[in-house]
Amino acid sequence: MSQMPDLCLPEAIEDEETLDDVLSRPSQPLLDSMRRLTGDIMILGVGGKMGPTLARLAKRASDQAGVSRRVIGVSRFSDGILRNKLEAWGIETHACDLLDLEGLGRLPEADNIVFMAGRKFGSTGAEAATWAMNAYVPGLVIRRFPKARWAVFSSGNVYPLLPLAHGGATEEDTPGPLGEYAQSVLGRERLFEHFSRVQGTPVSIIRLNYAIDLRYGVLFDIAQKVNTGQPVDVTMGHANVIWQGDANSYVLMSLGLASAPPTLINVTGPEIMSVRWAAQRLAGYLGKEAAITGEEAPTALLSNAAKCFALFGYPKVPLETMLRWTAHWLRVGGTSLGKPTHFETRDGRF
Q1: Where are the beta strands (DSSP E) in the chain?
Q2: pLDDT digit string (tens) for 142-174?
Q3: What does the alpha-carbon distance between residue 257 and residue 312 come to, in Å, rounded to a whole number?
Q4: What is the DSSP letter of 166?
Q5: In terms of Cα–Cα distance, which of 145, 151, 155, 181 is closest to 251?
Q6: pLDDT tens for each residue of 51-65
Q7: What is the value of pTM for the model shown?
Q8: Does CATH place domain 16-213+244-271+303-316 in 3.40.50.720?
Q9: Nearest to residue 330, comparing CAs of 231, 224, 216?
């Protein structure tokens, strides 16, 4: 069976083909994890920002580990281009609205399921739809697949804003979601927890705090403002970020730790990043001046991922590399998903 050494990082990323390749390169720990994992992998909500490269990562890691398994992507697939891309990568696709019980019943069985479906932006003014996707659908899907192992995407937004001296919320901290989006995400967790306990379904819950690739993310948002001369608001003065490829790798490895009741894992980068500092670093790479507005508040939305690093190792892509890659992406006219993170939001309204 073939193996692949840990990632050899390029100096810069020039195009989307290369970006998708780098995002889906498996590390040695992931290869080892995929070799131990049994059964197929199905991804519910594969059409989002992180889903396509997670699916490709799962397929590449399985193939390179010498494991024959189906990797199945489920989405409404309003975009036929994405479905074709996934199938070209060897991903089996199924179109399904997860609110449709008949469609849900037609989905194939899988021993391992990654739950990525949800709603965040546009929640304000459409709170009912947000709760339906974030807290009703989880009950439907875990009852449909009670014997699967689950890795469930949640969010660091379930934690309250904390002082920097706290060091970021840990899995032992009491949730304090601010606003209906964050409350509905905690509802997602509670539904999975309830049925995990009742059915004995093994679940890992991933509290993710700001994954990035070069087409979106906190660093892209800051860099775009610097590049166009817009002021960077530093009131939310600090943030955590992690390379999307690293985050997806941790999610896939967490399938092996799924338990009943669920295992909680914070996934984010190791640094408490200063937004002001990041703007200045990006300005240096871009050859621009960073315009700063506001003053840093004493609290921020921060997570501590020490447990994740103890389980799976540190991220492979360091913060400075992400900054350099992001600036270069903007300099060469790289594409944007047009989906701002709104990381500056302090009132929980998305």
Answers
A1: 41-44, 71-75, 92-95, 112-115, 149-155, 162-163, 203-208, 211-212, 232-233, 238-239, 242-243, 263-267, 273-274, 292-293, 299-300
A2: 999 999 999 999 999 999 999 999 999 999 999
A3: 11
A4: G
A5: 151
A6: 999 999 999 999 999
A7: 0.95
A8: yes
A9: 224
